Amino acid sequence: MHSKILLTTILLPLSLAAALQPRAASTKCPTPVTVTATKTKTITVTKTAIPKTSTTKSHSTSSSSVVAQATPTPFGVIAAHSGSAIHLDSLAAVNSTFFLGIESRSYCPLSKPSQCPPGTDTVLFVAPGGSAFLDVVVPGGQQIYVNSKTGALQFVEPHIDSPPTGSGVTGFSYVPGASYGDFGYSGLGANGFVACPTTASGGLYQVFAQIEGFVAPASTGPCIGFDALAPADTQAGAAAFEYL
Question: Over the Cα atoms of the chain, what is R_g?
């Protein structure tokens, strides 16, 4: 069931908005540019959730995380809320935060582009114990967490061992399905995910877990509750070298 939430929201700082330029994966270190509010929908809703075997893919996780006893299923996330501005938008990892309506931001330092993972879509997985990670090559991995003060869904920068103290690092779940799985979070008293607009014109929505005591950021319009559909990722190898 879709939750509909009418909450007061605020403008993100101009410095963050300026850093959120939609871009494709690159083998060169990215430079900040101005974000546009044009929405992109890069994932079609035709993927089938097919779990991978333990021989096809390995996952990099933080040294401080729970050690996986079996290979988890990597998956993307698509927001579902019929009739809303975010319906069927893909989850994108950008600037250590997650958004809807823009492209993922990744980087690969390898000298030969042919050796780099695609880096175009945001792919994650849930490890045994309920911790979640981005599907990357970078040593140490990139753990996903929920900001315990704001409810923002975030991820650690490359080469950072663990999230800030007090963050919500467990409680994530992935339930496979016939066509789509379901991605969820139940930590910190959370009740589903919401997406909150960052500009008056919409187009760019930041993702939050609706944790206990959640107060929407004072952006410019109501937040939108959504179901997090989780189509399994069937490509071989990691989805990106690292996300920025």
Answer: 17
SS3 15: helix
Running along the chain, 244 residues long, what does each successive block of 10 average in pLDDT? 37 40 43 40 36 42 44 95 96 97 94 95 97 97 97 96 94 94 97 89 86 85 94 94 97
DSSP code at position 16: H
Residues 6 or more apart in contact with residue 14 via CB below 8 angstroms: none
How confident is the model at residue 199, as a pLDDT?
75
Joined together, the tokens standing for residue 180 give 């789509």
Measured on CA atoms in the order 69, 70, 74, 78, is the torsion positive or negative? Answer: negative
Please tell me the predicted confidence (pLDDT) of residue 217: 84
Query: CA 189 → CA 186, 213, 241, distances in Å?
Result: 6, 9, 33
**Which residue shows structure tokens 């066509």?**
179
DSSP symbol at 72: P
| First-residue to last-residue Cα distance in the chain | 32
d(CA 57, CA 50): 13
